[in-house]
Amino acid sequence: MLDLNGKNALVTGIANNRSIAWGIAQQLHKAGANLGITYLPDEKGKMEKKVGELVKPLNPSFCLPCNVQDDKQVKSTFKVIGDRWSRVDILIHCLAFAQKQDLSGDFSKTPRSGFNIALEVSTYSLIQLADAAGSLMSKGGSIVTLSYLGSIRAVPNYNIMGVAKAALEASVRYLAAEMGTKNIRVNAVSAGPIRTLASSAVGGILDMIHHVEEVAPLQRTVNQLEVGNATAFLCSDLASGITGQVIYVDAGYQIMGM
Question: What residues does NAD(+) bind to (predicted)?
Answer without folding.
Answer: 13, 19-20, 95, 165, 194-198
